[in-house]
Give the backbone structure.
Amino acid sequence: MSENNEGKNVHGFCRIPANIVETYADNIPFDIYLQLSDNKVVKLEKHGSNAKDVIAKYAVKGIQYFYADKEDYVIFVNTIRQDMEKTFGNKTLPKEKKLKNLSDGYEMVHDSLIRIGLSEDVAAIAKEVTQKSLELISEQTNVFSFFKEFKDKCHAAYMRNTLLSWIVTGMLETFDWSNSALRGKMCLAVMLRDILLTNEELKALREKPIDQLSFGIKNHPEAMAALINEAKREYIPKDVAAIIIQHHEAPDGSGFPKGLHSWQISKLSSLIIVGDVFIDAMFRYNFEPSKKEFVISDLWDRYKNDDKFIAAVKSLKTMLDKT
Ligand SMILES: [Fe+2]
């Protein structure tokens, strides 16, 4: 392959993480493009070279994304969906490479939702990334050390979601009304709840007061819930949308988008809300395991007047005590 000097505007193109392009390099039946400047991409053309080697060479140079036009991208998403076991479930890959594949898969779901919407293929990849991520983290003997080691090597939102999926699954297991189907839905809700937001929007969400957030940020629970509700029922269960729409509410009515109060917030959403506050704190403490007790006591104080949220804190403490 070599670069063609005729550039095209990047806005008509969809990006694909370099790691995923490398995995499929020998079987990509369409043109791949490289970003030349802020708004231009150039085609990589075959000249008898091994496509995988050329793409690997660019990846080594620090290229994080390649580009494909939208029609080809839709086909590529379908290809990945049909071959997900190879992409995300290769048992022989080292765990850091698996984690990178899953983090890239998460980014593809983010980009796909924005560029092509919630199709059957995108929903299938989201489910696969969620399930494989949970399997990977469940294999770790020390989850907090694992996150400390890898938090800067993957998409930050993906790492946060994977940790929260593990925590929420453990919290659910402390309740006698939970079951595996419910745990699956909760993990999917965790993985999809912030997926429409960019890295910059996620940063603003963590750092700014609610009244300074943009409409796009404040609307993300409803936007994602709408995508799920508008898609076919078999793609993503509708219960997942109901959990997502409440994930920024607070028991005292200070949350968003609706300012609900505790009695209006479901038990499932309360678990995600409490888990998210815990993870925020653990991120601030760089996943130092010794800070767990301190953070829990803070949560205890924060929710002490609310039975539903205190029940969530108790379940969090119980699950953490077991690890
Ligand atoms: Fe969110």
